């Protein structure tokens, strides 16, 4: 059993477990970003997905420094849906090692968070 005094990855700075997350990934094509977003929403894995304008990513891959254009997809979800969202992204994504980063939402509008709960149930 986990030690309740040790924060886990979903704990907010006050020590309370986050009930909501934003989850970000990137992909190399706007159409693919749209498919990832739509699939997650249709499956109720997230309440909302925002696709950001292309960004330039600089990274090391296979011992070389690479530069590429990517689209960011930011999902708003309930923490209870994270594992299913991650599994979906790993399955639907065509990168060998896709970026999947979850950030706890420590505060938010009650109405909005209630909507996230409803849409991911």
Structure description:
It is a single chain. The radius of gyration is 16 Å and the shape is elongated. The two termini are 27 Å apart. Strands 1, 2, 3, 4 and 5 form a five-stranded antiparallel sheet that branches. The protein is α+β, with helices and mostly antiparallel strands. Helix content is 28%, strand content 31%. The chain contains three helices and five strands.
Keywords:
121 residues; alpha+beta; five-stranded antiparallel beta sheet; 3 helices; 5 strands; disordered N terminus
Biggest sheet layout = 5 strands, antiparallel
Beta-strand residue percentage: 25-35%
**Oligomer designation:** single chain
From N to C, what is the helix and strand string? EHEEEHEH
**Rg over alpha carbons:** 16 Å
Low-confidence stretches: 1-12
Individual helix count:
3
Shape: elongated
| Helix fraction by DSSP (H/I, runs of at least 4) | 25-40%
Would you tell me the overall average pLDDT? 90
Number of strands: 5
N→C terminal distance: 27 Å
What structural class should be given to the helix and strand makeup?
A: alpha+beta
């Amino acid at each position: 059993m986990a030690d309740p005094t040790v924060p886990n990855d979903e704990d907010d700075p006050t020590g309370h477990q986050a009930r909501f997350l934003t989850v970000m990934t990137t992909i190399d094509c706007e159409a693919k970003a749209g498919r990832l977003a739509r699939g997650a929403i249709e499956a109720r894995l997230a309440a909302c997905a925002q696709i950001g304008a292309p960004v330039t990513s600089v990274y090391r891959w296979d011992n070389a420094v690479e530069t590429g254009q990517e689209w960011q997809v930011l999902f708003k979800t309930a923490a209870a849906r994270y594992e299913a969202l991650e599994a979906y992204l790993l399955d639907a994504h065509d990168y060998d090692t896709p970026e999947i980063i979850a950030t706890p939402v420590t505060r938010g509008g009650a109405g909005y968070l209630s909507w996230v709960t409803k849409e991911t149930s």
